[in-house]
């Protein structure tokens, strides 16, 4: 009997959605893949490589790099995952502080359990706590109905880009350099990225002149610019915006009628300047100048449990606050959230702890805040150590970091390295990063994955790796590559 079959569309990838082919995500690109291969090789044949471990400085993934989860978070989650523990008072009271038990009970009662879908916008109690946190942080009101709990910050970004890009000529202003989630999402949803450049010489600052130049250039090319993204504190730059800069930026958004997307996932990772939220500045402008149409500026503010001192990347918790969004558009944001059903409930519970940590007098208060302080200090120490190692390297110039988890130095490659890369069809910074990985096991990323000006080269590295030993290998490996091409 002849078997009848027809080949499906996977036989011919060109027939698939080409937007997916176009999307690039350097953070998990070829260098990360190669690092995993080398890790597997080390496990099988420990002596086969010139190094003994892989240092993943390519991604802001703190627990992977040895950062310890905060005790209170894991105690509450443990009880929520296995509520039978709560029933057994004898055991539970020996192992868990009373405030962790109380929080777990409260969250379980509110939701019907960690294994149940929550409402699409997120658990109401958690949204109420997020709104209170924002009010205390900014000194202006926040409405729980304007909070969406999300699957990390990523879902918030994807939802907004999905909603805003309706035609191929629609565009969004993105900072260069940027976090590649943005360019990847623009590619996926078929919109146009309109780049505005951050000024490296002034610590990667944003200028309104540059924003307007980029807006005018994009518009002149026929792009309808709908929104502008700011990452503050910056990934990959580590820069921080002050209140005046944010006010100027909001003025730009108002004049040009563009929606502001403020990615503030690193708001707790600041080292010398205080963090100022876009929401606070917009609320102040609205209050002080009620007739100046500040309420026409729509703002999407994004936060996450993946960063700060929690580092709970794998739990996928986050939130966005939407400000000045007309009802009809709000309903469509709600619909997008409901199509995703709901964010992981465990992630939502962590959001609750992020915004409502144990308070003074609670049994877990001292330990929680000590752990937060220790992680913060440790990260800052690692940041200084890496900055000083990079500053000692030949051909490297690194701006002073102000926040986030990354350094993004410029590298002035010898001509021979640039020519060798071009001959191989690679970017010079890609070639450099690959050679560094192969010779030292240190995985960093090329600036080309984040965007940079033509003929400029950068590398992006996290400062999450602990200790100074790896920095010695880093400096030596760097010098060797440079000497090879000098
Ligand atoms: C600026 C920025 N936004 C968003 C994200 C995504 O984070 P999440 O794990 O919350 O999805 C990251 C992750 O590194 C980031 O750096």
Descriptive tags:
486 residues, alpha/beta, Aspartate Aminotransferase, domain 1, Aspartate Aminotransferase, domain 2, 3-stranded antiparallel beta sheet, 12% strand, binds pyridoxal-5'-phosphate, PyrdxlP-dep_Trfase, Glutamate pyruvate transaminase, pyridoxal phosphate, aminotransferase
Task: Give an account of the 3D structure.
With 486 residues, this protein is an alpha/beta fold. It has 3 domains: 172 residues, Aspartate Aminotransferase, domain 1, CATH 3.90.1150.10; 36 residues, no CATH class; 239 residues, Aspartate Aminotransferase, domain 2. Helices cover 46% and strands 12% of the residues. The strands form 4 sheets. It has a 7-stranded mixed beta sheet with strand order 2-8-7-6-5-3-4, sandwiched between helices. The chain has a 3-stranded antiparallel beta sheet with strand order 10-14-13. Strands 1-12 form a two-stranded parallel ribbon. Helix 7 packs parallel to helix 14, helix 8 runs parallel beside helix 9 and helix 15 packs parallel to helix 18. The longest helix has 27 residues. The chain is globular, with a radius of gyration of 24 Å. The chain binds pyridoxal-5'-phosphate (PLP). InterPro entries: ALAT1/2-like, Aminotransferase_I/II_large, PyrdxlP-dep_Trfase, PyrdxlP-dep_Trfase_major, PyrdxlP-dep_Trfase_small. GO terms for molecular function: pyridoxal phosphate binding; transaminase activity. Homodimer.
């Amino acid at each position: 009997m002849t078997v009848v079959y027809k080949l499906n569309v996977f036989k011919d990838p060109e027939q698939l959605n080409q937007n997916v082919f176009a999307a690039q995500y350097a953070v998990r690109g070829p260098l990360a893949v190669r690092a995993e291969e080398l890790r597997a090789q080390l496990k099988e044949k420990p002596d086969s490589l010139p190094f003994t471990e892989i240092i993943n400085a390519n991604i802001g993934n703190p627990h992977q790099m040895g950062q310890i989860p905060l005790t209170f978070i894991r105690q509450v989650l443990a009880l929520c995952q296995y509520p039978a523990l709560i029933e057994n008072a004898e055991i539970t009271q020996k192992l868990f502080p009373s405030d962790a038990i109380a929080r777990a009970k409260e969250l379980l009662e509110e939701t019907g359990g960690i294994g149940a879908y929550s409402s699409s916008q997120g658990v109401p109690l958690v949204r109420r706590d997020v709104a209170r946190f924002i009010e205390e942080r900014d000194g202006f009101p926040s409405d729980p109905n304007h909070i969406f709990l999300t699957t990390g910050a990523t879902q918030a970004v994807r939802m907004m880009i999905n909603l805003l890009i309706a035609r191929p000529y629609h565009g969004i202003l993105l900072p260069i350099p940027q976090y590649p989630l943005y360019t990847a999402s623009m590619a996926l949803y078929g919109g146009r990225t309109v780049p505005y450049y951050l000024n490296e010489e002034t610590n990667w600052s944003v200028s309104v002149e540059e924003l307007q130049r980029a807006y005018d250039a994009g518009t002149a090319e026929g792009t309808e610019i709908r929104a502008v993204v700011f990452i503050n504190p910056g990934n990959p730059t580590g820069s921080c915006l002050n209140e005046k800069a944010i006010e100027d930026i909001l003025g730009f958004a108002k004049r040009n009628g563009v929606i502001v997307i403020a990615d503030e996932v690193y708001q707790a990772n600041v080292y010398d300047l205080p963090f100022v939220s876009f929401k606070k500045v917009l609320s102040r402008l609205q209050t002080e100048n009620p007739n100046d149409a500040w309420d026409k500026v729509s703002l999407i503010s994004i936060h996450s449990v993946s960063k700060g001192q929690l580092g709970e990347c794998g739990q996928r918790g986050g939130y966005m606050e939407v400000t000045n969004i007309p009802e009809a558009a709000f309903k469509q944001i709600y619909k997008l959230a409901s199509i995703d059903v709901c964010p992981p409930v465990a992630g939502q519970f962590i959001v609750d702890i992020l915004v409502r940590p144990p308070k003074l007098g609670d049994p877990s208060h001292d330990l929680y805040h000590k752990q937060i302080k220790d992680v913060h200090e440790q990260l800052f120490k690692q940041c200084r150590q890496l900055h000083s190692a990079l500053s000692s390297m030949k051909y490297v110039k690194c701006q002073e970091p102000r926040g986030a988890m990354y350094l993004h130095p410029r590298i002035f490659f010898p001509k021979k390295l640039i020519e060798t890369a071009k001959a191989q069809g690679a970017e010079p910074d890609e070639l450099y990063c690959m050679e560094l990985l192969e010779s030292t096991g240190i995985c960093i990323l090329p600036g080309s994955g984040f965007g940079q000006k033509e003929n400029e080269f950068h590398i992006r590295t996290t400062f999450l790796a602990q200790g100074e030993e790896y920095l010695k290998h880093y400096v030596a490996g760097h010098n060797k590559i440079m000497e090879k091409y000098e």
